[in-house]
Each structure stands twice: as C-alpha cells, then as structure tokens.
Amino acid sequence: EDYDKALAFLQQGLEIRKSIDNKVGIVNSLSNISAVHQKMKNYSLAIDYAKKALYIAQETGTIIETILPAKILYECYKHQNNYKESILMFELYISMRDSVNNQETQKEIVQQEMQYSFDKQQAISEKEHEKEIALSKEQKQQQKIISYAIAGGLSLVLVFSFFIVNRLRITRKQKLLIEQQKHLVDEKNQEITDSITYARRIQEAILPPLKLVNKYLPNSFIIYKPKDIVAGDFYWLENTPNAILFAAADCTGHGVPGAMVSVVCNNALIRAVREFKLTQPSLILDKVRALVVETFEKSEEDVKDGMDIALCSLNTKTYELHFSGANNPLYIIRNKELIETKGDKQPIGKFDNPLPHTTTTIQLQKDDGVYIFTDGFADQFGGPKGKKFKYKPFKELLLANHNKTMEEQHQILSNAFDYWKGNIEQIDDVCVIGVKI
C-alpha cells in the first residue's frame, strides 16, 4: 500500500513501454496507474488515466485490455454520482468481459477437439506400428507399407504446402489491412495534433506577451510549463490607471479541457476589469465567479469546472499590494523570512454556500519578493523515491535564492523542477510568478 512508490514504478514502466511503442503494454500501465489513483481516492486522476487506457485499447482492438479501464471508469463515475457515464462504462465492461469469456470457451472447445484428434491419431499410429512388426517377414507386405508411407508423405507435403500458401495469403491481407488502419490512425493523429497545436497559438494569444510583462513589472519572472500542448494554467496581467493587476490561475483539468476552461476564466477576468470597471481583487474575483457560473449554467449538464487563482493589485508608486485568492496563497519574502497569506478556501466556479472573497492589504518594502503560483510545481512526482516535491521544500527553495536576480531565480527554479521530475511524466501544468520590489 505504498501508493506513491507504486505510481513511481508504474510511471517508469509506462515510459519504457512508450519508448518501444508497446501499445498493449501502454494500456496495461495506464490501467494500473488509474487503479492506484482509485485506491488513493484520486477519482479525477483515475478517470483521466482510465480514459487514456480505454482509448488506446479500443484503438488497437485489444478487447481484453478494455475490461479493467472500463471497470475503473464505471466505479469512479459511480462514486462521483455520474450515473449516466457509470452505466455506459458498466455496459462496456460487461460486454467486453462476456466477449473474452466467449473467446476462452471457444478456445477450450478447439483445444479439446485437437486433443481428441491427437489421441485418436496416436492410437492409430501405435496400431500401424504393431502391424508393421507383425508383417515385417513378408516382403510383399513391406512394399505395401513403403508405398503407403510414400503416399502418406506426399499427401502431408501437399497438405502442408496448401496450408503454407493459404497462411501467406491471409498474412498478406492482414498486413495490408494493418497498413491501411495505421495510415488512417496516423492521419487522424496528425489532424488532432495539428488542431491542438493551432489551439496552443490561440491560447498563447490570450496570454500577456513577456514584453508587456517586463514593461509593467520590469523586475520579475514567469515560469510557465504546460503539461500538454495546451494548458489549464495561465498567467494574466492588466494595467489600470492606479495599479498593475497580475495573477496566476489554475483551471480545472489540463490539456484541451483545461485550456477551454482557461479561455472562459481569462475572458471573465478581462470583463470584470474592463467592462465592470473593478479594481479591488476581492470584487474582481466575486464578479469572475458570477460570470463563470453564468457561462456554464447555459449547459444542460451540471458543469462544476472553474479555477483556483492568486490575484494581486500592485500600486507601483506607493508599493501597496492588495491580494485576494481562491485556494491559492501569496508568498512575500522579506529579510530572509517568508510570510504566507492564504487565499479563501473556495474556488472560482459553482460552489456550495459561496462567500464574498476577502482582500489583504500589505505595504511592501524595497527588496521584498512577491511570489504567486499554481500547485503544479509542489505536486510534481520525482526525486530518488518518486514522491511529490511538496510546499515546504518549495518555500525553502524560494528563501535560498530570493536575493538573486529575477533572471537567476527563473533559471534556478526551472532547473530544480526539471531535475526533480527526471524521467517521470509531468503530472500537471506549472505556473510561477515572481516580482522583486
């Protein structure tokens, strides 16, 4: 039950199977990772990995490998009260299980028939051998036996030759079919990759350019490492007459689903400031929550997606900082001491009994370091034992290097993350923003 270590070894196995393009092995690894997350009650991650396993299993046509991910999806959706998806996965699980059982039954019947034929042939061979010994004294009978043997040998050669030719013909057809299917899969994969790559260009277009960030926050850095081509994390900046607004946001999920939610949340932030003229962080987050909930309520499904965020408003003349957060905190390092200001324990999105967000005001001093971030850095698995990086080492890393330049801090943090991750797959998007006063 050392689940963290189990996940680390499963991830290593997955990388090996990916390196040799072992599709069945990849499905097996993804299913086992999903099963461990299910044991850990990480149902969202379990669903994510099970979906990947099921997709590849169905794509490659390996029926038996679809059973476990379908079963996990059925149980996880059931736990989340998503009965519609749960029933679909349960039906798929039963269908695949019965299919495999039927195949096993047919295999047993064929094996029994082959064993019966073999036993029968063995008995015949033994009888003929006894006959050969009894008639060995008679030359004429020997000649007959030799003739029969030659005729039988020729018959076997003919049968075997027919079998080989037929097998070659089937193999050629199968090879042609596989090549056609591979070509089709490659085309579809290329189309999907091209679409996602173009989506990245659209997502990058909504991110503030680094030139703009350096203009308004000249002594700063941004570490942005999407897990996939597109990301659920994003950073945001808006210049107002009296202050610079900047934020690090983590939307539900990653990849394409996360990126779609990030577009909704980014647009809500822009509307709250430009359309509704809000400047106080807590009021901005209240309005963003209302806009996000309003957007998703248009769907017939019960959508609870949203984001965690750390939002700052910095007066560049007085160096007064206003902070409001949804689950994400603010770190300020002053005189070799790290001061943490926690965000409100509620997300931006649909939430039971939501409360108004709060604003914390801090008078910054020269050489103060301001840091906001998402959870991707601290939650990354890696190191010698394949465990999470966690927040305490993250704080120690910031404290140990806060006196260095922003460019040096950017390089140190980025290298530390890559070194910790090693060969383990990145599990989430990463976003870290640092500002030196």
Explained architecture:
With 437 residues, the chain is α+β, with helices and mostly antiparallel strands. It is built from 11 helices and 13 strands. The strands form 3 sheets. Strands 2, 3, 4, 5, 8 and 9 form a 6-stranded antiparallel beta sheet that branches. Strands 1-13-10-6-7 form a 5-stranded antiparallel beta sheet, covered by helices on one side. Helix 3 runs antiparallel to helix 4 (67-79) and helix 6 (139-206) runs parallel beside helix 8. The protein starts with a helix and ends with a strand.
In short:
59% of the residues lie in helices and 16% in strands. By secondary structure, it is an alpha+beta fold.
| Biggest sheet details | 6 strands, antiparallel
- The whole-number mean of residue pLDDT values reads 89
Shape category: elongated
Radius of gyration: 32 Å
Terminal Cα span: 47 Å
Number of strands: 13
- Spans of at least 5 consecutive residues whose pLDDT stays below 50 are none
How many helical stretches?
11
Strand content: 15-25%
* Succession of helices and strands: HHHHHHHEEEHHEEEEEEEEEHHE
State the share of residues found in helices, binned by percent. 55-70%
Structural class: alpha+beta
